[in-house]
Design goal:
It is built from 11 helices and 16 strands. By secondary structure, the chain is an alpha/beta fold. The chain folds into 2 domains: about 35-180, 2-Layer Sandwich (Endonuclease, Chain A); about 195-340, Endonuclease Chain A (Endonuclease, Chain A, 2-Layer Sandwich). Strands 1, 2, 3, 4, 5, 6, 7 and 12 form an 8-stranded mixed beta sheet that branches. An 8-stranded mixed beta sheet has the order 8-15-14-13-9-10-11-16, sandwiched between helices. A hairpin with a 3-residue loop joins strand 5 and strand 6 (about 135-140). The model is unreliable at about 5-20 (pLDDT under 50).
Length: about 350
């Protein structure tokens, strides 16, 4: 082989190696889930959730950050009255104002086994439920009254491995609530993403697997390792977009903007939806990563140190062409209505059309 030919071959393999992004083991073993059903607000309301509750024959397990919707509370009480054993793990947020405390008391009086989550986690921020041992819902949505102004998404599945692990962790968190511990059972599902156990690793692995595009809906950023992984993706010529809300509910505006400016400096394209939110231009409460329009994460995890490393959170990773296409279409719809992040954070702003807590 001539020297020029040898140099060409070496250059070819060098470029190929740079372009190839090896995938983490769990991503290569990602279990196929064939029955996913998407729910998205504000295009939909909570009706699909109520319909799922009504399918319960014996049990309903709910892990949730907040319940402020009276309609949601009444629907849960309806299941109790027909004999369903309802267990609810609710973050302390469920009892720290009069409205939410009244709903907590209502459900407790109705017969729900409702408890405040353990202090072993900074917050219990998951948004999930399991009907009997046959149907699971993993989402980004709290049980709030202003869902018509929120961009939130969730999926139903009857995948046995997902349901089994969700029940195992949930039942342990019932015990954690009783003794204020923070034990997490062994985790084996390739699809599920749990904080504080494996969220950081799995989300970084997912970001690192991108070859062409990363599209993110997120409320809070700030985790340095997530920011660094996104920067590395940009360096690989991956198109990285982050969509959030300019007037956030999750952290002070100055802190939120500092994180967004940091992303921009790293080459990430960042936009925000204007405020106050409406049913046409919603508040971005969703937490998702769409990689190469093939692999999707959605869940309760924000991309902050607290959320990934200290809180109880739950997300799911999957490949589903139909669901991905629906999510991508909604993302583009929101992106088209978003604006560039202003140079200065708003001193005061109203996230929602009517000032309402999450």
């Amino acid at each position: 082989m001539k020297l020029s030919q040898l140099l060409f071959v070496l250059l070819f393999f060098s470029l190929t190696a740079q372009a190839y992004t090896p995938k983490a083991g769990w991503l290569t073993q990602l279990k196929s889930i064939d029955d996913l059903q998407l729910v998205a607000t504000p295009e939909q309301d909570h009706t699909p959730l109520y319909e799922a509750f009504a399918k319960a024959q014996k049990t309903l397990r709910i892990g949730i950050f907040g319940i402020s919707s009276q309609e949601m509370a009444d629907q849960i009480e309806k299941q109790i009255k027909r004999g369903i054993a309802v267990t609810i793990i609710c973050d302390k947020y469920c009892t720290n104002n009069d409205k939410r405390k009244a709903i907590f008391d209502q459900l407790q009086k109705a017969g729900a086994n409702i408890m405040v989550a353990t202090k072993g986690f900074t917050i219990s921020h998951w948004k999930m439920f399991v009907v009997d041992e046959s149907l699971a819902f993993v989402s980004t949505m709290n049980f709030i009254s202003r869902s018509n102004q929120m961009r939130d998404v969730g999926v139903f599945t009857s995948e046995p491995s997902v349901i089994k692990e969700m029940i195992t962790v949930f039942d342990q968190d019932v015990k954690n609530s009783a003794d204020q511990s923070s034990i997490t059972p062994d985790l084996t599902s390739s699809n599920l993403v749990w904080s504080p156990n494996n969220s950081e690793t799995k989300l970084i692995d997912l970001i690192n697997s991108a070859d062409k595009t990363i599209e993110i809906w997120i409320e809070n950023m700030g985790h340095p390792n997530i920011h660094a992984a996104l920067e590395e993706a940009v360096k690989r010529k991956v198109s990285v977009r982050v969509l959030t809300s300019i007037c956030g509910l999750g952290m002070p505006a100055d802190a939120a903007f500092k994180n967004l400016f940091d992303l921009k400096k790293r080459g990430v394209v960042v936009k925000g939806t204007p405020f106050p939110a409406t049913d046409v231009i919603p508040y971005i409460h969703a937490k998702t990563i769409n990689v190469d329009h093939q692999t999707v994460f959605l869940g309760s995890e924000n991309f902050s140190g607290n959320s990934l490393n200290k809180a109880r959170e739950l997300g799911i990773v999957f490949k589903d062409v139909t669901v991905e296409q629906k999510l991508a279409a909604l993302y583009e719809k929101d992106w088209a209505q978003a604006v560039d992040i202003p140079e200065v954070a708003p001193e005061k702003c109203s996230s929602l059309t009517t000032n309402t807590e999450e």
